Amino acid sequence: MNSGVAMKYGNDFPAELSELHLAALASLKGDIVELNKRLQQTEKERDLLEKKLAKAQCEQSHLMREHEDVQERTTLRYEERITELHSIIAELNKKIDRLQGATIREEDEYSELRSELSQSQQEVNEDSRSMDRNSVSVPENQSTMVTADVDNCSDLNSELQRVLTGLENVVCGRKKSSCSLSIAEVDRHIEQLTTASEHCDLAIKTVEEIEGVLGRDLYPNLSEERSRWEKELAGLREENESLTAMLCSKEEELNRTKATMNTVREERDRLRRRVRELQTRLQSVQATGPSSPSRLTPANRPVNPSTGELSTSSSSNDIPIAKIAERVKLSKTRSESSSSDRPVLGSEISSIGVSSTVAEHLAHSLQDCSNIQEIFQTLYSHGSAISESKIREFEVETERLNSRIEHLKSQNDLLTITLEECKSNAERMSMLVGKYESNATALRLALQYSEQCIEAYELLLALAESEQSLILGQFRAAGVGSVGDQTGDENVTQMLKRAHDCRKTAENAAKALLMKLDGSCGGAYAVTGCSVQPWESLSSNSHTSTTSSTASSCDTEFTKEDEQRLKDYIQQLKNDRAAVKLTMLELESIHIDPLSYDVKPRGDSQRLDLENAVLMQELMAMKEEMAELKAQLYLLEKEKKALELKLSTREAQEQAYLVHIEHLKSEVEEQKEQRMRSLSSTSSGSKDKLGKECSDGTATPLTLAELRPYSESELTAELTNALRREKKLKARVQELVSALERLTKSSEIRHQQSAEFVNDLKRANSNLVAAYEKAKKKHQNKLKKLESQMMAMVERHETQNHCCQTSNYARHSYFQKLDH
Description:
By secondary structure, the chain is mainly alpha-helical. It has 16 helices and no strands.
């Protein structure tokens, strides 16, 4: 019993250790799954932010394009305004020229008038002289005023030319500016536009001053146009302000998205570090397990103790790791090697990145175990005894499946060869059907020609019979071979009439047939390639109907030439029928006789291939049966081993039962001796004797003489008590035996369950390792893709920044030149 209890606790201890190991692995797997989910979520958020950034960039480019369109429109309006101002300046120049000409004429008139006045000055009186002086003062004032106006106009004209050249320079500078502008540049352009508008206002003012000086209103609608341009300029300024505000908001949003992108990248890097830490920890945990049996392959890869295969989670040579990940991993392993001398606490694990509950659970489970090495040693010690049998079972199952696969492949080959043979037979049958169809067509044409010949022969026969009856009637009418009486004359006349009618109908039918043959053969009866009309148009049924229709057109007599033509047509139909018969083919039978069938070499190869395929199929079937028999043999051997194990346990139980029976027999004998001693002690005569014998240490067996002093009632009571005690002992023996059997059965069942549980643990561990490796590969591929995308984005961003900086520098230098 003690051994059974010890076995029970001995089996429960590795089970608890394996449960702890499974719990640790499950927690690590859960953390990895959670980290993968979080990583996927961050990737989704990053994609969303990238989409938002792209959208913001698109909107920014759209706004910049709109702003450029607005600037182009304003530039075009300014150019139009400049052209209008040029036209105004040209008109003003013309007016100035006209005014200069008028002033010259007035000066000439003034000089003439002055000469006249000087001549008549002596003739007029003093009053007229005073009037002349007043009249002279007035033109002098006018002339001085005109000269001042001309000088002022020339100054204003030069000022207007200067303003217009400034406007043209600003417009040319706006045309040469590039598309990508920042907010400061937009403000600078707005300032330039305002200066240009101020120049325009100054030009308009100068024009108004010129018009005011000239005293003429050249353009009465100029004030209205000016107010309209001012309103449009105010609207453009408001639109520029709204665009600048929108650009500021977009840049703020872009900065926010960049900040969120940076936070997402930091979170991603942190998650990567946590995943790498967990991977290194899991690799260290897995590396401590297989290192206890100290079995390594020549490639320094650990061997799985359950299956004997190479472990896939060994080194970094198999899986390419990114440079950043490799550097972080090496630093973490150094930190772990430096801190491996002391135990890891739950708070430290939680600070690394695992949740607090999982960290506490792992800390408690690892504190309960003395070392993780003991867990793997116990697992390996329990699983190494079963691995060989499992490997043998897997080999047998693999062999059976391979034989099954080979059998199916041979069946597939046989079916493909059979299918090819069926295809060849189908092609042969289709060719044979085509031959039959061609022969049927030839026979149909020959039958048609034969029917036409028969019809022509019938008409020739009718013509010959009618001619013969006509000759016979003529002979009768001439009186050759007949007696001349009145009745005979009447019969001869009727015979001649019938003969003429028959001759006429035969000739009409022959003419109709000749017309049909002429129509069918095109009038060239000597040509052999004439087309043949269907039998319905040349049949004897239609020939009576055509006779009546062609009787009116057949008034001409039937000559010997027509009869010869009909004979020629008959000969032509015979020739056509012979030619059609020559085109007929000799046909083989549908069913192939294997003895008389002429087989080609290709047919020999196909037949050999088919025979080989059949033989291979039979061979593979035999291999499959042999593999199944091997599998059955393996199962029988397994059952035999199980039965031998049961037999050995039964033998051990038998030995235990025998020992127990001997022990019980000794106990019964001792009880009998004690009973006999108690019986002997009741008698007074034998009490001293028994006491002496007991003191001497010798025991003598009871005899009948010693039992005689007992009464029958005492003997029966003693016997009943002995029987009762014997029954109780037997019942106790049975209980002990049943308890022992139950314990052995439970121990066997427990042992089998523990073995199966260890095997399941090994399989689960191998599956977990494979899944972890797959997830690791996928994760590393994703990391590589993300790093490549990040590098591409960084390069693209740097190129854009460089382009923007160069364009900004070029604009700044250009505007500085313009300012200078």
